[in-house]
Amino acid sequence: MDLPIIYHEDYVAPLPSGHRFPMAKFRLLYEMLLADGVASHTQFHAPELPPSEWIELVHDDYYIQAYCNGTLDAKAQRRIGLPWSPALVNRTRIASSGTVLTAKLALECGLACNTAGGTHHAFPDYGSGFCIFNDLAIASRVLQNMGLVRQVLIVDLDVHQGDGTAVIFQDDDSVFTFSMHCEVNFP
Fold first, then answer.
1. CA 99: distance to chain centroid?
2. How many CB atoms lie within 10 A of CB 14?
3. Residues 144-175: pLDDT tens digits?
4. Given a cut of 80, is residue 19 above it in pLDDT?
5. Catalytic residues
6. Where are the alpha helices (DSSP H) in the chain?
7. Which of 75, 171, 179, 184 has the highest CB neighbour number within 10 Å of its CB?
8. 129: left (phi over 0), alpha (psi -120 to 50) or beta
9. pTM
10. Closest Cα partner for 115 from 23, 11, 22, 38?
């Protein structure tokens, strides 16, 4: 079986011209994998929008509602670093669902890859550093609730510490977070 790869066209949401977050990288990765012959169309799987209950397993209801409805205060919005839009709400939700799908397919196939995700700066009650909902935590909780896994190991090799993920699971022995990051970088 070919390696399952998760991608959705909604992984890219429009941002203002000149915005520093490279949103197009998600589409460009998909296109490059196909153009270079690394992957074929048959390997790609598209996630569906997740049920709200999945996000509620990790995030506070007030935060979820404020973000999804566009009523998050300006300070909280600045901390995220991305301008709110309905397209970004959709993108954030579909990317979280993509990580759940990736984890499920990895359990079935031994390995799977998501072309988005890794939103490790999202805390239960606020977003930070371009991260709105913590897809890693959501996937962990969903798979645990489905009875597919009891324990989870999250290995985070980003240059930045997975601070949101660490806080979410700090008192939970069923999830171990390992973050190897640059000592002097954010946070």
1. 6
2. 12
3. 999 999 999 999 988 888 999 999 999 999 99
4. yes
5. 121
6. 25-35, 52-56, 61-69, 74-80, 86-109, 135-145, 163-168
7. 179
8. left
9. 0.95
10. 11
